[in-house]
Design a protein that fits this description.
Shape: elongated
Oligomer: single chain
Structural class: alpha+beta
Helix content: 55-70%
Number of helices: 11
Radius of gyration: 33 Å
Length: 317
């Protein structure tokens, strides 16, 4: 029975090694890398919304502010990104970086920013009556950028980038582990690099998820509230394109985190001995073999033994 348990454990170990150390497993280990590129691309696009007047960038906004009146301000719009702001007067569109450069509490900054976003309105004498309302929209936009949306998505993206950076020294740790005997414990430095890589990537994933939920719910609430509040001078519309991009970034990031252990799998020089030295596999294989032998071998022998003993007693009587 001990030989049977050993063969069973060895067969299971050989199958596991064939799966994880076969020639095609090298291509499977590269699968998580295909999720990194779209994740970085969608995060960069989400964070760069309204930062410039380049094609498609002005359409990436969290919310768009418009006037509720039907007069001169009707075609004018202020779009907010995480860091940028766009001014659209119906004919021209000007975008620039606003977060951190202008103080909402400083009237001079509001006036200067309004002049930069709407240069044609400032030079048009017929539209000067709309300037106070435009300044109010710009002030509201700066307050939303500073107080409501914040830098949550940027924080999650930075942590994810830090985790990717820690993967390079982790690769060096893998090379050293591959040369060690199975069961050799990690050093404190190796444990720190490994835990730092996993923890920062998981933390970045959770923060990006929180940013996606927070932006979607907040933008939807602002749009619903301004549309149904009587007397509201500003209407807000949520930006669907930016929300789709950041949710796609989270989806690809989640797939990368799930498949990351495959990429970081350490192949030892003798993986079969590593599996055979695992006490859990030995015990399970031995227990399975013992139960199989008890069911198929010992029970019939016991029945025959007790049957013979009973017949012998009857002959003696």
């Amino acid at each position: 029975m001990g030989k049977f348990a050993g063969n069973l454990a060895r067969g299971a170990a050989e199958k596991a090694v064939a799966i994880q150390c076969g020639p095609w497993f090298k291509f499977i280990k590269l699968a998580p890398l295909t999720f990194i590129i779209p994740t970085i691309l969608f995060l960069v696009l989400s964070l760069s919304g309204c930062l410039s007047s380049a094609p498609t960038i002005p359409s990436l906004y969290v919310v768009a502010l418009t006037s509720s009146s039907n007069g001169t301000l009707a075609p004018m719009q202020v779009r907010l990104g995480y860091f940028g702001m766009c001014g659209d007067d119906g004919d021209t569109r000007t975008c620039l970086s606003a977060a951190g450069h202008y103080d909402p509490d400083e009237p001079k900054d509001i006036i200067h920013l309004t002049e930069l976003l709407f240069p044609q309105v400032m030079n048009n004498s017929n539209a000067r009556g709309a300037i106070p309302e435009l300044q109010n929209m710009v002030l509201t936009g700066l307050d939303l950028q500073d107080q409501i949306f914040g830098k949550v998505l940027l924080t999650g993206s930075a942590l994810f980038a830090l985790g990717l950076t820690l993967m390079f020294p982790l690769k060096l740790v893998k090379k050293k582990l591959a040369k060690l005997a199975p069961g050799t414990p990690l050093t404190k430095k190796q444990q720190f690099i490994r835990r730092g890589c996993y923890s920062t990537i998981w933390a970045g994933l959770m923060i990006v998820f929180a940013a996606c939920i927070g932006t979607t719910e907040t933008a939807g609430a602002l749009g619903h509230a301004t549309a149904h509040i009587k007397g509201s001078s500003i209407l807000m519309k949520e930006g669907v394109t930016l929300q789709v991009l950041q949710w796609m970034a989270f989806g690809f990031m989640f797939l990368f985190v799930l498949t990351m252990p495959i990429m970081l799998f350490v192949k030892r020089e003798n993986p079969l001995d590593q599996y055979m030295s695992a006490e859990g596999i030995k015990e399970k294989a031995f227990g399975f073999a013992k139960g199989y032998a008890m069911d198929k071998v010992k029970k019939p022998k016991r029945a025959k033994f007790f049957g013979r003993q009973k017949s012998q007693q009857e002959d003696m009587v």
